[in-house]
Amino acid sequence: MVLPADVDTLSQAELKALVIALVTRVTELERLVAAQRDEIARLKGLKGRPQIKPSGMEQATAPAEPRRNGRGRRGRRSKRAELRLHEERVIKVASLPRNSRFKGYASFLVQDLVLQAWGVRLKRERWRMPDGQTLTAPLPAEVTGHFGAGLRRFVLAQYHQGQVTIPRLLDQLADLGVIISKRQLVRLLIAGQDGFVDEAGAVLRAGLETAPWISVDDTGARHRAHNEVCTQIGNDHFTWFGTTAAKSRLNFLELLRAGHRDYVINDAALTYMRERALAGPVVEKLASHPAQRFADAAAWQAHLEQLGITQLTVTPDPVQMATEGALWGAIQAHRLVPDTVIVSDDAGQFRVGQHALCWVHAERLVHKLDAFTAEQRFAQQHVRRLIWWFYRDLKAYAREPSRRRRSELKARFDRLFKRRTGFVVLDRLLARLHANKTELLRVLERPEIPLHTNGSENDIRAQVTKRKISGGTRSEAGRACRDAFLGLLKTCQKLGISFWNYLGARLGIPDAPAVPPLPDLVRARCAPA
Question: Measured in whole angstroms, how far is the alpha carbon of residue 123 from the centre of its chain?
Answer without folding.
Answer: 48
